[in-house]
Batch of 2 targets.
Target 1
Amino acid sequence: MSDEWTGNKGVECPAVKELKLALKMAVPNIWVATIAGEESRHTAGLAMDVMLHSQSPAQKPVADAIIDALVSLAPQIGWYDLIYVDWDIDGMAFGFQMPYLSRDKGTPLEKHRTDAGTTSDHKNHLHIDWWPGKGINKWPATANNSGFSTALANAILANAPSGAARDLFAPRGLFMTGWKEAKWEVTTEAASWIYHFDHDGGVDRRASKTPWKVAERGHWDMDGAKLKLIWKDSVEFWNTPIDPSKQLHGEVRPYQGGLHWLVVKKAK
Ligand SMILES: [Zn+2]
């Protein structure tokens, strides 16, 4: 999306600010990005990426609740486009664009299937913008909309699965550091490993500081307030919250032999 904007840069429009406020009210741990990238609708202050993964059973329903709320309040909010990924009844992923005030083709407030490139780009985030189209390098009138945050937050909470706003985001930091996939370095007295988590409950690890190459695939789940990882020879528990900026602690319980401690930090 480079070179699509040559107007003022680096300031969020009032509507984007108001949307951010509404999302934080409804879903306090939500992660959003606004001003980013090159000469785009993002640097223009007219767009937001809401980091909710379309393949996460915890995050997708929240994204759907946000979309439903944005549709029901579209006249007050005056957004232009939504871009995201959904699943059809056969379980196939498809990218879609939903126009409202956009000049692009398509029936307003309906999902229009888009190409595979869009599918992969917008799998891990919902994009929303107030971008009026190429060649218009100033904010449209509706970018100055505000005052809708309380109504929008209430609509999101009414649509979201109960508890989603509070609970479902504990493991978010597992997967993503900003837009990058997160990797974790796990050290015990015996070994050091690099871990990588999938949204579907899988986790891969490889030995990082041993002379031999070991790779293994396990499973993760939340077990009360702890993250539980199941491996071939052990079960591991990480204390939460999962905060990539902090060192985490936990324990390894081998199926044979004694318990030992582990330390987790974000890998470079
Ligand atoms: Zn975006």
Target 2
Amino acid sequence: MEVLITLITLAALTLGLLILARKYRVSLSQNKAAFFWTLVLVALTIGSLYLIYTPPGTRMGPEQPIPFSHQLHVGVKSIQCQFCHPYVDSSIHPGLPPVEKCLYCHNYIIAKHPQILKEHRYFNTKTPTPWVKANYLAEHVVFNHQRHIKKEIECQQCHGAIETMDRVKGRYFYMEFCIQCHREKKANLGCWLACHS
Ligand code: HEC
Ligand code: HEC
Ligand code: HEC
Ligand code: HEC
């Protein structure tokens, strides 16, 4: 969608410029400075459009309410993904761990750490930890982890080296990414039947 909007905007801009250029062909050659600044303005517009429509996932991972580190928990402490994301192979929603799960360990491990005290506050007030979502998928796309994990596709193939990340850097999943692998693995390419609702 974002790509489409950007393309349409670009097309409209180009068309407008072409019309203007035709109309003022003579005066253009006499007003090189004005022409130059117009170009600069157009470049700036395109630049800011690009920034606006760059999906959040392509920049640094979002700051989280608690600086939870996959690098520490998965990379160093070797906790299994499924311990914290238990529904990943049985439901459409892999789930983010509830506070109870953190406290299962942290009632004993570094129990007085300020960040863990914060977890206790969430627990005592029955507030779910307001984790910030890192991954994005267009709303009309049906994605189901189950089918993929049953085929033994590694989490890392889609999520990158999570075990090295202090702050999960999500991504925006474009269709091209899905299609590429489906083509390689000879999976369903009937997009409208398979992926789009
Ligand atoms: C000790 C618990 C724990 C373990 C183990 C764990 N995670 Fe997570 N995971 C979390 C928490 C908490 C979040 C939400 C905060 C964040 O994004 O860092 C999260 C977020 C994520 C996200 C981003 C979700 C989104 O879109 O916002 C992905 C992807 C993910 N984990 C994949 C994995 C994978 C793959 C593994 C194993 C290699 C793994 N996790 C192991 C706790 C865990
Ligand atoms: C299976 C046990 C286990 C679970 C579950 C677990 N942790 Fe940890 N966590 C650890 C260990 C071990 C350490 C390292 C403690 C140390 O530094 O001595 C740690 C360290 C931390 C730290 C301190 C990092 C630092 O910079 O010092 C934070 C914050 C933290 N965990 C948050 C969480 C959150 C939030 C969850 C739930 C999503 C969670 N942990 C789930 C075992 C666990
Ligand atoms: C074939 C690609 C693929 C594989 C393999 C994969 N994921 Fe995902 N994952 C995605 C996509 C796409 C999303 C975004 C879905 C959405 O936003 O609805 C996602 C989202 C998530 C989320 C965030 C869910 C939420 O509710 O915000 C977690 C957690 C997660 N994945 C964990 C895992 C774990 C753990 C594994 C391995 C056991 C794994 N994923 C394997 C593609 C994949
Ligand atoms: C790394 C490879 C890989 C990636 C990336 C991937 N897929 Fe798949 N996908 C597969 C395989 C292999 C199957 C076949 C699973 C089976 O046969 O049960 C599959 C099956 C599916 C199915 C079930 C199709 C059916 O036959 O009903 C859907 C829906 C689907 N994928 C959607 C997606 C979407 C959406 C994305 C992108 C966000 C994606 N996939 C990314 C490998 C991948």
